[in-house]
Amino acid sequence: MTEQTTSSEKPTLQGEMLTLRPIRAADAAAVWEVVTDPEGKRLTGTTATFAREDVDRWCATVADLPGRVDLAITLAGQDEYLGEIVLNDIDDVVRSANLRLVMRPGYRGRGYGTEAIELVLGFAFDGLGLHRVGLDVLSVNSRALSLYENLGFRVEGRRRDAYRDGDRWCDAIDMGLLEDEYRAGQLGSDR
């Protein structure tokens, strides 16, 4: 399911429904929609405010940044940016990275995130040789928590009141997936 090609170490990953490709300048309008979406910001704990010119610059240059792989999620055979999946804080010595996923408002809940994560985990463990992929998810984002658990991530801890949810606080749930857990999950699935 995961055909991988690399260009300057930034992969293009092909799945059944999706193609993951490096983010580029032409994605800026769709990225702008993501970073200004109130519900998306709430579910990811994003408090930063972005200027449009910063988003334009980011999209034009992120593919060149070391220590991270930022991929646009697109439907196979199409090029429209539906969301993005990121491996950042890549540490070649510890062989670990952090995972982040965000979808445009109209594309949430369609299964795209599941396939995107599966593709990126294949790249992380088989392509980059990582030992661990971690992430954090907000306690108010039950759909994402369930998704990560279904993909084999384990809860490793909880940071109480780490994020704001409007006028209230919410916890951050730290999760991780180790290489051997990933491989064991591969044996029992069709991924």
Features of this protein?
191 residues, alpha+beta, Aminopeptidase, nine-stranded mixed beta sheet, 6 helices, disordered N terminus
Distance between the termini: 7 Å
Structural class: alpha+beta
CATH H-level name... which superfamily? Gcn5-related N-acetyltransferase (GNAT)
Could you estimate the helical fraction of the residues in percent? 25-40%
Number of strands: 9
Backbone shape: globular
Q: Tell me which CATH architecture applies here.
A: 3-Layer(aba) Sandwich
Quote the CATH topology.
Aminopeptidase
Uncertain residue ranges: 1-8
Average pLDDT level: 92
Topology as a string of helices (H) and strands (E): EEEHHHEEEHEHEEH
State which percent range the strand residues make up: 35-45%
Report the CATH C-level class.
Answer: Alpha Beta
Pfam families: Acetyltransf_3
InterPro entries: Acyl_CoA_acyltransferase (IPR016181), GNAT_dom (IPR000182)
GO molecular function, one term: acyltransferase activity, transferring groups other than amino-acyl groups
Keywords: Transferase
